[in-house]
Amino acid sequence: xxxxxxxxxxxxxxxxxxxxxxxxxxxxxxxxxxxxxxxxxxxxxxxxxxxxxxxxxxxxxxxxxxxxxxxxxxxxxxxxxxxxxxxxxxxxxxxxxxxxxxxxxxxxxxxxxxxxxxxxxxxxxxxxxxxxxxxxxxxxxxxxxxxxxxxxxxxxxx
Length: 158
Prior knowledge:
By secondary structure, the chain is α+β, with helices and mostly antiparallel strands.
C-alpha cells in the first residue's frame, strides 16, 4: 500500500502556504509591517521558516496565526487531510489513511471546516430580493388554541 503522505513534499507545502498567505511578500501577522527578516528555521520542521518583525520586534513563523499553528501534526498531514476531505471521505477513513487517531482526525476536520467558514466573505443582499418558496407549518400539535375554528366554537354551528 502506498502512503499518500509519502508523496507530499514538506518544502512544497510550506512554499504553498507562504505564497497563498503572503502573495505580495511576507508581512508581520501582529502589526502588518513588511519590514521582516528571516530568523532561522524550526528545529523539528526545517522547512518552516522563522521571521522577526523590525516594526514591532515580535517573532513569528510560516504558520503563526493560521489554523495550522500550535498543533503536533506536520503541515503535510493537514494538507493531506484537506485533500481527503475534498474527496468526501469519512472521518474514520481519513484517520485510517493518515494513520492517526480517529479523535485527532475529527478535531482536524472540524478545525479545517471552521477555518473555511471563518474566511468566507459575508453575503450582502441588495436591490430587489425575491423568495420563491414559503414554508408553512402543517400542524399545531401542542397548541390547541390555534386549532379552534375562527368565529366561534363547534357548539355555535349546531
